[in-house]
Amino acid sequence: MPPFLSSAPQLGHLLMSARRRKELTQAEAAARAGISQSRLSVLESDPSAMTVAQLLALTAVYGLRVAVDDRPDTASTAEW
Length: 80
Hints:
single chain; 52% helix
């Protein structure tokens, strides 16, 4: 089962882990995603200001996919 995210820090950790699995430095991954290395560093530590375009670019570089699905418990309030 793929991981489900419930917080911004989880997204940052997931992206950093994916980058490391691909054996990419921040500079290499950032260049492929069309962002600066310093921006990637910020996004890995605090992805709360990540744009959808940046998220999609990084997931493409890392071979990930983004899926949006209904939560089983719709009474829960989102953290974001």
